[in-house]
Amino acid sequence: MKKLLLLFLILNFTNCFSQDSKQNLFLFINQKPISEVINDSLTYQTFEINFDTKGNTTEMELKVNKNGNLENKIRVKGASSDIVIFKYLNKKSNNDPVLIKKKDVLNYLNYEDIVCCIKIGNFLETLSKFNVYIINAEPNSNQYYMAKKVSFEKYIGL
Q1: For a disulfide at 150, which of 41, 86, 101, 125, Cβ 3.0-4.6 Å?
Q2: pLDDT for the residue numbered 53
Q3: How far apart are CA 134 and CA 147, in angstroms?
Q4: What is the pLDDT of residues 84-95, one digit of tens each?
């Protein structure tokens, strides 16, 4: 009996340390989904964060030609940008939105802070350590939020 009890305690003790539970990270993205499909048994939404803060750049070069006339050469450079797509999929109520109190939102990032201040490599590395939820509201708007658990992928846009 003692051996059985000892075995049970050892298994229970090791189980406590082997659990890999991630904390939740909430992303406040106050924008409409870029795509959305909703019907009786399926809700699919995608949200996008575009890390292109510079956008297209226009350069103009002024020259004087052989005849003494002013010429301007205009070049538009398209910049490729990194994009992170967040996908929310709720199929037959397997991933319903979660109602969460404002005081329970401990780890969160705002859309503006993400785009302006965070490098995409660091952002993706951080996301992989959390369960990621999208809240489609401003951080200080309500006492309760509807959070949607999402998956994410990085794309290189044009």
Answers
A1: 86
A2: 53
A3: 6
A4: 999 999 999 999
CA–CA gap between residue 84 and residue 124 (Å, rounded):
9
* Nearest alpha carbon to residue 23 among 110, 108, 88: 108
Give CA–CA dist 6/51, Å, rounded. 55
Q: Please answer whether residues 134 and 58 qualify as being in contact, where contact means their C-beta atoms are separated by less than 8 angstroms.
A: no
Do residues 62 and 74 make contact, with C-beta atoms less than 8 angstroms apart? no
Handedness of CA 98, 101, 105, 111 (dihedral sign): positive
| Angle, alpha carbons 97-139-95 (nearest 5°) | 10
* Matching residue, tokens 């189980």: 15
* pLDDT tens, position by position, 30-85: 888 899 999 989 999 999 988 765 555 677 777 778 887 777 777 776 666 788 99
**CA pair distance 90, 41, nearest whole angstrom:** 8
Distance between start and end Cα atoms, the chain: 68
